[in-house]
Amino acid sequence: MSGLPGDEDGPALNSGRGGYRIYRRRWLFLLVVSLLSCSNATLWLSFAPVADTVARRFLLSMEQINWLSLVYLVVSIPAGLGATWVLDTAGLRWATLLSAWLNVAGSALRALPCVLPTPGAPFAFLLGGQSLCALAQTLVVFSPAKLAALWFPEHQRALANTVATMSNPLGVLVANLLSPALVREENDVPIMLGIYILPAALACLLATTCLWESVPPSPPSAGASQSSSSSQSFCTGMKLLVRNKAYVLLALCFGGGVGIFSSFSALLEQVLCVQGYSN
To answer: Where, by residue number, does the polypeptide cross the bilayer (predicted)?
Structure first.
């Protein structure tokens, strides 16, 4: 698909050598991925800061409430490999679309126990919705580096990667602030679930209507041209990674840190509230 009229940046940012061009719609792609990542993170931790109130609203145990957050970590282990394969084979656009639709479907499924007249098993709806959102997470959190490499010139890659990556912890912050502000009593839980659907629906709408290609018509730099033409196959790339000692060490250290952070994030309300703190 050729570039849209007026979509290219001005001559000062264009490079005629090698046919490299940059397109303004790269910022739209970045906006969609960032909004999707932020929304997904808010859905992950939306229950954790108000776990006691949600448990009373749906007559659930605290262990069941904890699983609504922990399911993200469990699903990410097998689904992460599948997400990597989807990104490599289907491309960035289809991975973002799939993530956006899973995210909005999961957010809507979570709200069904509040609108159905007699929901037989509210936990099944809540856990099912969280599981769909967990599948969406594996697709969107792997996207920033690929988006920056394929769509942005070299002097903007760090900025694009930082914005898209930091949208996820921003969503964690939003959930920890917004959920306690929205939920003062049990009857407020449906309002919270409904509000969290809105950013997920907006991200899905933008991804569906505004993203038309995985790579730009012309690469923005020589590095982007190499990235799209000489990347390893999925199996070959995985073999290279597991044999790379530096990568394995980094994955273990960083993965351990993320695991500790995620555990504290999911259980923080239950750790602090027993000491007399409010939600």
So the answer is: 27-47, 67-87, 191-212, 246-268
